[in-house]
Amino acid sequence: MSRIPYNKALKPLARSLRKNMTDAERLLWSRVRRKQLNDRQFYRQKTIGNYIVDFYCPSAKLVVEVDGGQHYTEDGKAKDKKRSQYLQDLGFTVLRFSNIDVLKNIDGVVARICRYL
After folding, report:
1. 8-116: what fold?
2. Beta bridge partners of 64
3. CB neighbours of 94 closer than 8 A, spacing ≥ 6?
4. Shortest CA distance to 110 belongs to which of 17, 26, 36?
5. Domain residues of the chain, as ranges?
6. Residue 72 burial by CB count (10 A; 0-12/13-18/19+): exposed, middle or buried?
7. Which residues have CB under 8 Å from 40's CB, separation 6+?
8. CA–CA distance from 22 to each of 46, 52, 61, 91, 98 (Å)?
9. pLDDT number for residue 98
């Protein structure tokens, strides 16, 4: 794939999301930043197309999403399905974890990401 689609209008929102990460996102970021996992670079709150993904590893074409409660409503599930399909159509793999998973089982979440890498 050549260039990743990018909506420049989302840049201020992505910057704001980076400054205001959830506790679960902050915890996961502390474990994936600075090439801690298999020497792979991760980015947070990365714009891809018209979406902002929580974490992105370009060398593995991996997107990691940390989902709060709003993702488990019918509307949330439908939006996530559409979003995941869009990302998969671009060649990305999407791994999803709940906030609770990340907060209560960070080692298991990190192990799952490592297995993919």
Report:
1. Endonuclease; Chain A (3.40.960)
2. 55, 95
3. 63, 64, 65, 84, 87, 88
4. 36
5. 8-116
6. exposed
7. 57, 59, 60, 117
8. 15, 15, 23, 27, 12
9. 94
For residue 44 the two structure tokens come to 């947070």
Task: Please enumerate in sequence order all residues whose Cβ is within 8 A of that of 78, keeping only pairs 6 or more positions apart, or say none.
Answer: none
Is 80 exceeded by the pLDDT of residue 1?
no
In what side-by-side order are the strands of the sheet with 62-67? 43-48, 51-57, 62-67, 93-98
**Total residues found in the chain within this entry:** 117
Q: pTM to 2 decimals?
A: 0.90
Q: What's the CA gap between 116 and 70, in Å, rounded?
A: 26
Host H or E run for residue 54:
strand 51-57
Residue 6 binned pLDDT confidence (cut-offs 50, 70, 90): confident
Fill in the amino acid letter for 51: Y
Tell how many helices (H) and how many strands (E) occur in the chain. 5, 4
Nearest to 40 by CA among 24, 66, 65, 62: 62
